[in-house]
Design brief:
heterodimer; A: 843 residues; alpha/beta; Rossmann fold; 7-stranded mixed β-sheet; 7-stranded parallel β-sheet; 28 helices; 33 strands; 24% strand; globular; B: 408 residues; alpha+beta; Nucleotidyltransferase, domain 5; Serine Threonine Protein Phosphatase 5, Tetratricopeptide repeat; two-stranded antiparallel sheet; 9 strands; elongated
Chain lengths: 843, 408
Amino acid sequence: MKHSIHQGLQNFQDALLNGQFSEDVVSQWVQESRKAVFKPIPGNLHPILKDYLIDQWPEGLFAHQVESWYRIKSGQNVVISTGTSSGKSLCFYLPVLDELIRNVDFTSLMLFPTKALSSDQYIKIKEILDHINNNDAEKLLSVGIYDGDTNSVLRSAIRSTVNILISNPDMLHLGILPHHPGWEKFLGNLKHIVIDEVHLYRGVFGSHFANVIRRLKRILHFYGAFPQFILTSATISNPKEFSEKLIEESFEVIDLDSSPKEERHYYFLNPPVLDPELGLRKGLIDQCVEIAYLLVSNNIQSIFFSRTRKTVELTLKRFTDSFGAISGDVHGYRAGYLPADRRKIEAGLRQGLINAVISTNALEMGIDMGKVDAVVMMGYPGSISSFYQQSGRAGRRIQASAAVLIASASPLDQYIIRHAEYVRRGNPESALIDPDNPLILLNHLKSAAFELPIRHGNQFGRLIWEKVEPFLEVLNSLSQLHLKNGDYYWVAEEYPASAISLRNINKNSIILRLLQNNRSTIIGEIDFQSAFRIVHPGAIYLHDGDSYLVSKLDIENFSAELVPFHEDQITEPRITSSIKVESIDQTKYFNNFLSNFGELHVIEKVTGYKRIDWKTQQLLGIEEIDLPEQELLTKGVWLCLSQELVNNLRENNLWQSSPNQYGKNWPRIRLEVITRDENRCQICGLSLNSHSLHVHHKTPFRSYSDPEIANESHNLITLCPTCHKRVEQNVRIRSGLSGVAYLMSNIAPLFLMCDYRDIGYFCEPESGLCEKQPVIAIYDQFPGGIGLSAGLFEKIDVILRNSLQALNDCSCSQGCPSCVGPAGENGIGGKESAKQIIQYLVA
Amino acid sequence: MSDLLKKLQSMGLKIEKGFNISSEPEKGSSIDQIIKGEWIESRGERVFVYKESYPFGSVHGNVIFEKEIQFGSIAQFWGIDQIETMNLKDFLFFDTETSGLSLGAGTIIFLFGCCFFSENGLEVLQFFLEDPASELIFLNNIDELIQGHKCMVSYNGKSFDLPMLRSRMILNRLPHGNLAKPHLDLLHFSRSLWKLRLESRRLSDIEKDILAFQRSEDEVPGWLVPQLYQDYLATADASPLEGVFYHNKNDVVSLAALFSHVTRLVSENNSLESANLLDIISIGSIYQRSGNFTLSESFYQQGLAKGDPANLDNKILRDFALLMKKQGKWMDAVVLWQIAAKKNDLIACVELAKYFEHKEIDLISASKWVDTAINIINKSDASEKAGQELLHRKLRLESKIQCNHEKR
């Protein structure tokens, strides 16, 4: 069936395909509308529910809902991994409610990731329960929400009476498990555990959550309950493997989506290149404002999803500045707005009173605001499941809709925009966790011992006793656990769960204090690990759209002082790092390199920072600072390049680049440096005449926008031609390596479902890690690792191939932020040498 | 230090400064060297128990433990009907010492102290958990003791000690039905009984202010208790626990003394000569709330007889007046309201106005009381709404007066 399309949307699509933006649209496709596949209501469903279904859904159930019913009824743990709005809730409502109707003593636990989702589900479940209770006088099934907002008077009633408990992971961890004797009846009768949107439990949060589940199962076994698990997930590449790692039970996957789909037109738009040499594209905000004007002036109701709160405000401001007259219809929406204002905007969208909203992902999930005609994603939203969640906000039953992705300059965005097939075909993202991260595990073992003594020989989830015991010994040596007859007892005074946040690994954080008008106010906090990089003295810190200058970082007292800052400047830290291998867990051999996975000790030191003009990206200066080293003991992957590969690189010597114009004073400066260095090569000491000697820029000339700074004498050194060649070769290998590492660490998130900031990289031409061969290391940016490197190790060949593809796709000449990093960063020829290296790696 | 600990530290695990990674503890004094108690053994497990007797006639502060106490009508004071048929031996006074203050599953009870009356006097029993591993026999002994009594008496036990016991029983797979028996939480009574004259109703303060009992230097403050037990487990030296036993014993003996004191105070045939006026009034108001108007009135009257009613709080006068009004004793109520009204009590004036308007149909007097009330409002910062209501009442009275006037 072809959907009708309204005239405004037709005009918009014409502009994208044939008009103003046709040059910039790099791909487009149509998701055809699809009819639902219905199956009859299962015969063994309880008659009360059957009546309700016939009444509410006269067409019947979707095929995957029926499949879920039979699988869950047969006792299997299932994970339902189908698209957005595919009726996943009903997949678990039916088996859960059916069981409860047949035995009113039974209970179910349902965990939702946000409060908004919890209250939405509460209303829906309550409605069905009312139907059941009204149709059978003997039934009095009840549902309750137990979270941080639950009234303390209601809590004990909820504990002793509810059949269905709606809660969230934090409450389970903090409020329910440590108080489980109060939940004796509920837990003892537990038949089902439903965990919604399970793909969100990845990374640090997921690694914690897996341990919360281990604790929950321990307590349930104590009460003799062995409930069934029902999970729902967005589409990811590894639903079964991920669910089994998270819950440590076997799972069956239901992923054949049989719900109807509306016709939706997808457009991928890449802002035009303004400076081909530097790879600079038109700014994301500028581009979006133009698109927004086109949508608003055509009367198309739309949502713009931006990645940061700041972009929301900037886009809104730019739009108002440019198109004042029609901007009244455009609103911002993000965390930080007053709840009443947010409700007003949601209602306005529903009722069609508001034409366009520029929002963060706050509007992505769990809020009932109806559907709009068009969604515009300002930059790739970070994961393919988010992409579909956001584009799913567009679409009405009776007419077609549009979803537009506008790429930012980041390598991942640039990669995705050119490879729509990644989004169109199945999802390559794997959700990854590491439940055995030592710090996370230690904390949850404390909580576990608090909840129930840990008996000699007991497993913790699937973790065997031999691996559990060393942690218990540590806790015993710290007087937190008491050992008697081989069993470990909690004896300390505190409440260990409150010392764990499921969102962080270390609870230490740096408090950000704003000093203004002689007052000090706390405006936020930042985790200790990233503090040196982000709030070092002199750093410009962006918060809620405003700029602040860090005037002081007080590590002892975990605080940083900020003052308002009004110039268009940003800073970028300069970091030196070194790496040691602690242990090698696994090695894989490839043609030109070998890949190791294991424990790495990374030592980082922030040595200074660059001040950069925000608008022009020009380097304004380099400052030095003195901060202590920071250690990170983590999991990582490191690639050791073979001697043969290096020889080939040296022989090829392909790095022909046009000579730099060093400025008109160069001959004089050159002579001054050679004279200063007494006509000797500063590496081998060879003495030559000044014509035969070379003068080398330590930091490449191209890194500087101002030749005078580049030519300052401390940046220059005299070398003989042989040494210079070696140095340049090393510079090129280094810049090639660094380009590859930059690129890989930016492409990897597509497969690892993480943020690019979650992984760090390191490279070195002659490395102790690889017997003096070049190394590229990529590691988890979290102490102990959270499973990202482990996932990377599995997919290293795929990630290398895709990195090469991204490099080939990029039209810049010398490297740009969208491929190997800005050219100036890595020296001349960075892109070419990076390309050669990857070509050898994938060979 | 273990390799794992080193690794965890380099990942960021913080260990408190000056913390000594524990090595094997040196053998300190064991509990039976510190406290003159005995071991009860069964099925290879043992629990440590300390016993002490207070014969009848002995004193605790200003309370003398006596053999006979009549319960009868005071059951109503405690709000538990079953007490009517109980005798002194049926009460179990108890208190627990725990390893922490949260009610979570990881907090354990390590000392259960209790006392009860026998043929000879007050018997104190304290059960001590030598090690968390022997919790089962510890709890078994406690449960048996609870089973042997009809009513439990505690201080804040309803919100702390009882749920804590329940939780420990569940964790040791013991039935906890015995915990459901009648429970007197004296904290709740202290709150209403001494609301009028004491700042703090904590047991330690009640003990000083009401029982006139002074603890010795052996006392340790309650907040220190969890740490002392943790130290004992880490060092195996029981010496610091002596103070905990002392603290716990006096808590339960004070409970029994407080119970005796209050029981005597509130019984109907008690001579209240030496009793505090405010206490007597408070007893009157507690009986008022539990619905025994006769006893309530009797205590109010005795209280008023003890001193000049003009010195009493208006709220008390009004409560008493309300009690009288509910029983239809209007004249008594009017007297009380008038005393309060003299002391500028707004509500009393309104009550009087209502009384004269509806009961006496004396519109002039009613109108006068409304004027007095309006005066009080004008002098205070009472709400605008109250003022409007009064004006409304005033207008209605005036129109009624006018109307009557015309009829004549």
